[in-house]
Write a structure and sequence with these properties.
The chain has seven helices and twelve strands. By secondary structure, the chain is of the alpha/beta class. The protein has one domain: P-loop containing nucleotide triphosphate hydrolases (Rossmann fold), CATH 3.40.50. The N and C termini lie far apart (40 Å). Bound molecules: adenosine-5'-diphosphate (ADP) and magnesium ion (2 copies). One magnesium ion binds next to helix 1. The site of one magnesium ion has 5 residues, from loops.
C-alpha cells in the first residue's frame, strides 16, 4: 500500500519577465491538497492555465518551479527533498520527466537503463526482451521504434505511446499522466488508454490523470474526480462529476472575472 500525499502545496514560477530579479515571480499553485493511494485512479480536470501541469512538474522536481510552502510525501518520505532520480527510484513515474530528445540513446537502451536504475539491478535479459516486445506489440508500436533515439522526431502520438510503454515496463507505484489524451485520434487514444488499464490491472499503481477534456475518461475510469481551478482543487467527487463537467463545462467554477 502506497500513499502519495500533497498538503497545502504552494508553488511559484519565475517567468523572468521583469527588469528586477523576482519581478516575474507568480504564484501558480495556491494550496493544493490531494491524496492518491495504491490502486486508485484520480482525474484532475481543469481549464487551461489553471496550473495542472505546474502541479505535475512540481511533483517531478522541475527546477523552474519553486515550492514556497506545503508538503509532498510518498509513504511519509519527503518527495520534495529528493533528486529527480530519487523520485523515480521511490516509485514515482512522471510522464514529463524525460521530455527532451536524448541524442544517441535508443528507446531500447533508455528503457533498460531506466529499469536498471529503478530496480537497482539489471533486468534478466530474456524476460526483459520479451516484456518489451509484448508491451510494444500491444501498443501497436513497430519493433523498429525501439532502435530510434528517444523523442527524436517522435510524433505527438509516438511520444504518448512511449510514455505508456515506460509506465508498463517500469511498474511505478504512482504514475502522473499529464494530458496523455492531447493530440491523439480516437484509435490512438483507445490503444494508449488500454495500455494504462493493463498497467493498472497488472500492478497496484495509483494514477493521477491530468486532463482538460472528459474524453479519455470514457476509456480510463476514474475513482475520484477533482476540479482544479486557479491553482487549487475547488470540488471533488466520483465519476459522475466528470459527466457533469462534460455537460456543463467549467463556467460554474470560475470566478465571474475569469468566466
Ligand atoms: P495548465 O496545465 O492547467 O494549462 P499550467 O500549469 O501550464 O496550466 O500554467 C498555469 C499558469 O502558470 C499559466 O498562467 C502559465 O502561463 C503559468 N506558467 C506555467 N509554467 C510557466 C513557466 N515555466 N514560465 C512562466 N509561466 C508559467
Ligand atoms: Mg491548469
Ligand atoms: Mg497543462
Amino acid at each position: 500500500m502506497t500513499t502519495l500525499e500533497i498538503r497545502d502545496l504552494h508553488v511559484t514560477v519565475d517567468a523572468g519577465d521583469g527588469p528586477e530579479a523576482g519581478d516575474g515571480v507568480k504564484e501558480i499553485l495556491r494550496g493544493v491538497d490531494l491524496t492518491v493511494r495504491s490502486g486508485e485512479t484520480h482525474a484532475i480536470m481543469g481549464p487551461n492555465g489553471s496550473g495542472k501541469s505546474t502541479l505535475a512538474y512540481s511533483i517531478a522536481g522541475h527546477p523552474k518551479y519553486t515550492v514556497t510552502s506545503g508538503t509532498v510525501t510518498l509513504d511519509g518520505e519527503d518527495v520534495l527533498a529528493m533528486s529527480v532520480d530519487e523520485r523515480a527510484r521511490a516509485g514515482l513515474f512522471l510522464a514529463m520527466q524525460y521530455p527532451v530528445e536524448v541524442p544517441g540513446v535508443t528507446v531500447s537502451n533508455f528503457l533498460r537503463t531506466a529499469k536498471t536504475a529503478i530496480d537497482g539491478e539489471a533486468p534478466k535479459l530474456r524476460t526483459w526482451v520479451k516484456d518489451v516486445r509484448t508491451a510494444m506489440d500491444e501498443l501497436r508500436m513497430d519493433p523498429a521504434f525501439a532502435e530510434r533515439n528517444v523523442n527524436e522526431g517522435f510524433s505527438g502520438g509516438e511520444k504518448k505511446r512511449h510514455e505508456i510503454l515506460q509506465m508498463e515496463l517500469l511498474k511505478p507505484k504512482v504514475a502522473i499522466l499529464d494530458e496523455t489524451d492531447s493530440g491523439l485520434d480516437v484509435d490512438a487514444l483507445r490503444i494508449v488508454s488500454e495500455g494504462v488499464n493493463r498497467a493498472k490491472e497488472g500492478t497496484d499503481v495509483g494514477v493521477l490523470l491530468i486532463t482538460h477534456y472528459t474524453r479519455i475518461l470514457r476509456y480510463i475510469k476514474p475513482d475520484f474526480v477533482h476540479v482544479f481551478v486557479d491553482g487549487k482543487v475547488v470540488e471533488e467527487g466520483g465519476p459522475e462529476l466528470a459527466q457533469r463537467l462534460e455537460d456543463e463545462g467549467y463556467d460554474r467554477f470560475l470566478t465571474p472575472a475569469k468566466a
